[in-house]
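Researcher: Let's try something more involved. This one mixes different molecule types, so please make sure each is placed in the same coordinate frame as the others.
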Amino acid sequence: MPRLFGAPLTAYVPAAVLWVLALGFLSIGATFEPQSRTMPLLIGRAMLVLATLDLVSRAGTSWGRALLKWLNPAALQATESTPDKAAFRAELFYILWIAVFVATLIWLGVFVATPLFLAMSLNLVGRRSLTETVVVTLIVSAFVWTLFTLVLHLPLFPGLLFGGQW
Amino acid sequence: MLDVWLSGFESLLHVQELVFLTVGMAVGLIAGVVPGLGPTTALALLIPLTYGMQPITALALSAGVMGAAPMGGSIAAILLNAPGAAPNAATCLDGYPLSQQGKAGLAIGAAASANSIGGIIGTVSVLLVLPLAKQLILLFGPPEFFLLGMLGLAVVASASRGKMLRALVAGVFGLMISCVGYDQVTGVVRYTFGIPYLWDGIHLVPALIGLFAVAEMINLWVKGGTIAKDARNVKITRMMAGLIETFRHWPTVLRGSLIGTVIGAIPGAGGVVAAFVSYSMTVQVSKNPDSFGKGNIQGVIAPEAAINAKDSSSLIPTLAFGIPGSAEMAVFLGILVLHGLQPGPLLLIQNQTQIYGLIWALTAACILASCLGLLLTRPLARVTLLPSTILVPSVLTVALIGSWAVDQTIENVIVTLAFGVIGHLMSRLDYPRLPIVISLVLGSTIERDFFQSMMIADGSWRIFLTRPVSLILLALVVLALAATPGRVALGWGSARLRRPRKERA
Amino acid sequence: MRRTGLMLNRRQLIASAGLIGAGTLLGTRHAAAAGFPERDITFMIPYPPGGAYDEYVRAIAQPMAKALPSKVSVVPDNVAGAGGARAANILYRAKPDGYTISVLNAVGLLLLKLKGGTIGFNINELTWIGNLARDQYALVVAEKSKIRSIADLQKMSRARPVKFIAPGPQTTSYAATLIGTHLLDIRKEVITGYRGASASLVAVMRGDGDAAILTLPAVSQMVAGKLIRVVATFEKTSSIKGAEDATTLNKPDLAQIIELRPVAGPAHLAPDVTATLSAALIKAMHDPGVTGWAQKAGATLDPLSAEETTRLMHEQSAFIKRWAGLLSQT
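Model: All components are placed in one shared frame. Result:
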């Protein structure tokens, strides 16, 4: 892993992302009318300053550590560790899996997406038995349907493909 | 005065009113438990049920929902890190870690008792203050609201001990997000990229469901196992210990209740502000502030007391002037008008019995819901023993559908997912989530109140110094900001004095 | 004094009665032929539950359902977002079969379009079905204020801009403030962003500003409670004793500044379906339950036929267009 100022490059990523975000925020904010842009510019500049301090405090040098000690001493206890690739892959997979559920909810609606997501999550992803999968899927789907449709009379989202609207 | 209070109480003692109070309570509890539903949606969906009802019956039903929902929200926050309603996000901070330690019963017991006591203190305050409502509300204008918002930010920033830089980053990030949408002062639409959904800004409840519930479910999935780290330690029977803890920490309860009462009475401040300010102040005054966020029972008691106290006092601006302090109060206002009770100064004169009946109903619902919550603790706490492979998809399903249900807008689900990822990253990268919540809530109102103050004062900053309430709030802001460096300096000084002379030299 | 109940003159009463009769006949005949309505009708409300629009729709929903030729429900549906534009856009895209209608903040949408907002169509393309209310505006000050007349305000404005309190810049009250002060030659500064009429009135009472221009129903409670005083109304003849009006001020254009709550369906709605819905809406607004609610709530009812609403909406569009330059400024 390449290093910069005594810390791995990956250590700087969060602060760098915030820095770029602040820059984008300021660029767009500058296009608003004068009164409307006052607060966004103030906030954007504050983020630039804080992100810069965050960046610097991540350096493994003496001045970086000193800044960290003053502004964020809790991070001093964190030890540099090798990134857990397996955990990272698992997180990424599950976030994408939830995104697939969200997409299914939007396009196919609650009635289709709910049992589909539950069944696949339990059986395929979670490797639960077929019995457990069926029971849990039925219980949760029934709960959702009973609560929203029967009790609260709130028609569940039918999905964009079946007449739902943005 | 006493006879009016009693007549209000008597108006509830009829079968019909008691039945509908119970129905409202049941609905409120369920709505509170399901992330995204909350009292606002529950009230809105019950409006048709109130057609043809006597006003006092409709008020009893509404009070049941409003009084019980916070308890439902607390249960979800403690067991699943999923805030049932926005204010319950503060309960997640220490309630969920307690669940992880197998102390769900303790946390729910403490939440229930803090809920009840906070509700009682809020009621007593309202009963005493309501006749003075007009004068009190007129004391708070844009300069005071601005400073109240700044106080909220200052308290939260200074409570993030040891993580000030990252707390400030999180807070400012929340302020950036709060800039999205329609500017209430100039009418300019900002950072929406042409997306109509973003016109109203990032919707708060879907964002909180993502930040807490979804983020935690991702975490739980990756780690595996159960919520309760050691199933052997799960002590469902510790509810009574939770009740006792509340009484043991009576200053925390009192402080939280008073904060909730004061902030609830200020239109626009809302339950989130009350809960988080109460939490943050408790952290600040604690002798062991580093224990917060890791399962400190006071971290549950403080916000819970504030939330229920706020419920009663938020009636003050709603009833006195028709100014709802929250979405929930806005819906409740609609119910009032539908039943011929027009909020305003005349309401408090012409409909005293009904209004005091409402206040009693709210208190009764709060206490009864706490009792019901305690009864349900044993079965509910078993959720913490469910394997993650079953629990995670189930919670995600309900949370995402709940997010849609907030206002039946499908884009909410995308917001929840996005904030779920953000919340997960913040947790992994050690950025506290508390400041982002308070910034999201306060950001746009701080901006609006600041510009209104400048317009009122023709651009002069002296407006913040010449008004008595503003001056007090300004002093509190300065104190809150100075507290942490002051304490650090004092701690450094006293540590230096304690070292042997040889070392000091 | 409270402006309440059904605000009808003799001509409107006769027209409404005739319409109810004709509409019932027409509705029965055409509905019998076409079968409309065969299922529940969704009545959209462009704001969250609890607001004024919400109250009106929920009050008339059941009586309207009863007045329809078939046994169906009229289901209120809050579709909030984008300042009312979301509901309007959904309505515009909906199938023109009569099963989706909406109350609209028409003037608010006209203002939104003026400022380049999120309306992708001309709102007069929609099919106007009827109107729920028509409210006129009043210029109010705090009870303890030294301002007694418009002349006082004009005099004050020569020394310094008069501070007017207003809700957000997308609201009709804000537009009324800009147009009203212009017509009355009052140099003003508008302090905006207050959350609704009640918050604006409290701001006036507190002294944040000197005055406000809000609808008469919105100010009625505070006036009755002697916390706010009406200096002038924008009516042709003031309904408030002692207050000036458009006639005494010699500014007839003030009476054109109104807040409407029209009900619309998608474009190209069949005439018989429009007639059925229109008749049901008018009948509902005569329901004793609805008039009783309006009386107690201080709400005004203004049942108009589809044709009258269409004409009124075109007049309003022309009026707003006339003031486009002024309203585009913030």
